[in-house]
Amino acid sequence: QVQLVESGGGVVQPGRSLRLSCAASGFNFRTYGMHWVRQAPGKGLEWVAVISYQGRNEYYADSVKGRFTISRDNSQNTLYLQMSSLRAEDTALYFCVKDETIEAGGGMDVWGRGTTVAVSS
Amino acid sequence: SNELTQPPSVSVSPGQTASISCSGDKLGDKYVCWYQQKPGQSPVLVISQDTKRPSGIPDRFSGSNSGNTATLTISGTQAMDEADYYCQAWDSRIVAFGGGTKLTVL
């Protein structure tokens, strides 16, 4: 079945870095855009970043631009989020999400269960 | 502006129709999606491209979008529909989510 499994979350000090991974299975990963979306405890959904199917186009929320980098390895069916200069406000559950379309621009039709990132000293 | 505004809460009686609004500047010129999120679960896409229901979503869920407002309508609301609902749209290659609406089925 179609599945997204995130990993790499944990507790990290402010200013440090962390890399999240997302293993995709059950669909042709290389033909869909992919997103990261986060949700702070008790709060709503916040979009983080998107990458097109070949990785040529990346877009970011203003809140993470310059600090986070989204990437993908289509040979390994894996999506990544490299997070640096982490802040307390980056504390959230991070979801890996599949877009309905190649370049991304459609709905988000498959969601992982998320991995938790806690930024604290 | 890519800000999307939703009412924080909506209440509905079982079997009645629930409407959840999402407003934004010239929203009718963009495609809007809607997501349902139940406590402790990941969001689920219930409406795509303003009006399309993904496979497996009951036909009591419908959507519309015109002017500055998109609306998610749930006809014959059931207790299982109690959840948080989020609208989402693209604007200049940036994704925006609404703040979410808690639907209570009384």
Protein model, in words:
The complex is a heterodimer of chains A (121) and B (106). Chain A has 121 residues and is an all-beta fold. In chain A, 0% of the residues lie in helices and 50% in strands. Chain A is built from no helices and eleven strands. In chain A, strands 2, 4, 5, 6, 9, 10 and 11 form a seven-stranded mixed beta sheet that branches. Chain A has a four-stranded antiparallel beta sheet with strand order 1-3-8-7, with no helix packed on it. In chain A, a hairpin with a 4-residue loop joins β7 and β8. Chain A is globular, with a radius of gyration of 13 Å. Chain A starts with a strand and ends with a strand. The mean pLDDT of chain A is 96. With 106 residues, chain B is mostly beta strands. Chain B is built from no helices and nine strands. Chain B is globular and about 40 Å long. Chain A binds chain B through residues 35, 37, 44-47, 50, 59, 61, 95, 100, 105-109, 111-114, and chain B through 31, 33, 35, 37, 42-45, 47-49, 54, 84, 86, 88, 90, 93-100.
Kindly report the oligomeric state of this protein: heterodimer
Estimated radius of gyration of chain B: 13 Å
Strand content of chain A: over 45%
Total beta-strand segments of chain B: 9
Helical run tally of chain A: 0
Main beta sheet of chain A: 7 strands, mixed
**Fraction of helical residues of chain B:** under 10%
Category by helix and strand content of chain A? mainly beta
Into which percent range does the helicity of residues of chain A fall? under 10%
Greatest interface: A-B, 20 and 24 residues
Residues in β-strands, percent of chain B: over 45%
| Count of helical stretches of chain B | 0
Mean pLDDT of chain A: 96
Shape of chain B: globular
Average the pLDDT over all residues of chain B and give the rounded result.
96
